[in-house]
Amino acid sequence: FETSSSTMSFALYELAPNQDMQTKARTEIETVLARHNGEFTYECMRDMQYLYQIFCETLRKYSIASVTMRKTLNDYQVPNTKFVIEKGIIIVIPVDAIHRDPEIYPEPERFDPTRFEPEAVAKRHPMTWL
């Protein structure tokens, strides 16, 4: 519950000063709902691409888990290197650092849902958004 309410609060916080984004999201919701006869279903929600982009950008900028950890179950040879991560090692993945890396997300402090347009996502490594 807390993670969902926090994400929605951050999304609304970012949308508050961005009238154009609000209008675009509202238009999409109205259009998609009309296409689904006013019924809000799972399929209807899946058709709301811009709203999805808003939530992805919100989670990029305001990660619910700023770091995550994993423990290796086996030795792991890092591809294209001589390095081996030995079994039992705990790996720390810095989610916030990845999400705020300006080489991956230019102007990382700027809220920009277009970062998650399908074409933009396809250009990035799949592990740059966790």
TrEMBL record:
The protein's required cofactors: heme
Pfam family, one: p450
Localization of this protein: Endoplasmic reticulum membrane; Microsome membrane
Record keyword Glycoprotein present: no
Membrane topology: Peripheral membrane protein
GO cellular component: a single term: endoplasmic reticulum membrane
Keyword Zinc: no
InterPro entries reported in the protein's UniProt record: Cyt_P450, Cyt_P450_E_grp-I, Cyt_P450_sf, Insect_CytP450_Detox
A Gene Ontology molecular function term of the record: iron ion binding
Similarity remark: Belongs to the cytochrome P450 family.
Protein name listed in UniProt: Cytochrome P450 monooxygenase
Organism: Ceratitis capitata
Primary gene name: cyp6
